């Protein structure tokens, strides 16, 4: 199943056509259909004859795919089944794609329904191969892949790992989340194309002894939703992620850090060439003064002990103070009370272009929430009980208008 922080609901009725080839990975295509349907897309499916040996077409119909094609001439309801996806679908994705179908696409063979449909589609299909590692690495397959890529076809390469026959190597179907999101990206207006966005997300951990650390329960979900939304809309996204931050697609540049100092140093190195900085991370304001190298024994503390904390660099303020005229800075404020006043103060003190504020009870470990937003022009808004994916999408649209 697809994580909920990746479920971006489509505002208009669009269609994806999914081709399914013969592979044990074919059963995973059912989850793709379900995920695209969950966000409001129409999904049609074509199974090759080999795929029908692994799955009954009814499995796809039962999760909402319509129509589901199998053979070229047997269905009198669709006399032009080889042309229909090209006229109705905005994206054409083949997952899993077999070596034989890849060869058909490379050389324009039209001896199966799926190959005919791909030829009749005005754009380039997106393919996610799945096969035995030896088949994937064979020169013929690699040559066919190159032919398709040279034409502009997007190839979501298979993963390394153990395949059905027990062999190890590159051949496993790519992560469904990557396939799902690349499908969404292909039908999303690229209004952030050409922009470079820096995003910080997740918590930081400030070590004390060899075992313990100072941190907070931030999940990074809000930042991850913004990062994915920006990437889907065409931005080059650089995400600096604290420990435990959510999965991000391969198209996003990910930098994993642990401490506030590490997050600052990485963000500082990326910021000069960024157009927008969105600082969502729940960075620890203080770090405990360094303790023992090993584990601190409780017997050493007696009835208690005192820790001294040292202030960390304020990443938002530091980078906002160093922004160029054409750069935009967005910060987040997490409060327990007095949210609107805190947002106003933070916007002024940090010299940001926008501050997004929310209450602790509406934020931590939640997939939805309410936010109060204020920008440099005095415009404000309160969004109530909204999913974080919707909040992320609307924040980006607001940033575009600044």
TrEMBL record:
Pathway: Cofactor biosynthesis; coenzyme A biosynthesis; CoA from (R)-pantothenate: step 3/5; Cofactor biosynthesis; coenzyme A biosynthesis; CoA from (R)-pantothenate: step 2/5. The keyword Ion transport does not apply. It comes from the Bacteria. GO terms for biological process: coenzyme A biosynthetic process; pantothenate catabolic process. One of its GO terms (cellular component) is phosphopantothenoylcysteine decarboxylase complex. Residues 15-158 form the Flavoprotein domain. This is Coenzyme A biosynthesis bifunctional protein CoaBC. The gene is coaBC.
């Amino acid at each position: 199943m697809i994580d909920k922080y990746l479920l971006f609901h489509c505002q208009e009725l669009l269609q994806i056509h999914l081709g399914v080839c013969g592979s044990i990975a074919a059963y995973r295509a059912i989850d793709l259909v379900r995920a695209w349907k969950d966000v409001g897309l129409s999904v049609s499916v074509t199974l090759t004859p080999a795929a029908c040996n692994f799955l009954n077409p009814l499995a796809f119909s039962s999760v909402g795919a319509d129509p589901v094609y199998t053979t070229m001439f047997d269905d009198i309801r669709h006399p032009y089944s080889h042309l229909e996806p090209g006229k109705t679908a905005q994206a054409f994705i083949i997952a899993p794609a077999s070596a034989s179908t890849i060869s058909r696409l490379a050389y324009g063979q039209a001896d199966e329904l799926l190959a005919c449909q791909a030829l009749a589609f005005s754009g380039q299909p997106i393919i996610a191969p799945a096969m035995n590692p030896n088949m994937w690495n064979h020169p013929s397959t690699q040559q066919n892949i190159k032919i398709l890529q040279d034409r502009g076809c997007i190839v979501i390469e298979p993963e390394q790992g153990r395949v059905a026959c027990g062999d190890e190597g590159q051949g496993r179907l790519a992560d469904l989340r990557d396939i799902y999101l690349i499908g969404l990206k292909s039908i999303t207006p690229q209004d952030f194309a050409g922009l470079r966005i820096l995003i910080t997300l997740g918590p930081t951990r400030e070590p004390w002894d060899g075992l313990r650390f100072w941190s907070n329960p931030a999940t990074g979900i809000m930042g991850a939703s913004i990062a994915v939304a920006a990437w889907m809309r065409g931005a080059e996204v650089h995400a600096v992620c604290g420990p435990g931050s959510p999965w991000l697609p391969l198209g996003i540049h990910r930098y994993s850090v642990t401490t506030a100092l590490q997050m600052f140093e990485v963000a500082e190195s990326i910021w000069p060439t960024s157009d927008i900085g969105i600082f969502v991370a729940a960075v620890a304001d203080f770090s405990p003064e360094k303790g023992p190298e090993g584990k601190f024994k409780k017997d050493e503390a007696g009835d208690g002990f005192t820790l001294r904390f040292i202030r960390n660099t304020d990443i938002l303020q530091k980078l906002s103070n160093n922004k160029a005229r054409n750069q935009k800075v967005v910060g987040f404020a997490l409060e327990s009370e007095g949210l609107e006043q805190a947002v106003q103060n933070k916007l002024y003190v940090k010299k940001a272009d926008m501050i997004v504020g929310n209450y602790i009870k509406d934020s931590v470990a939640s997939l939805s929430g309410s936010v109060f937003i204020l920008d440099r022009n005095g415009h404000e808004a309160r969004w109530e009980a909204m999913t974080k994916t919707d909040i992320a999408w609307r924040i980006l649209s607001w940033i575009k208008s600044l």
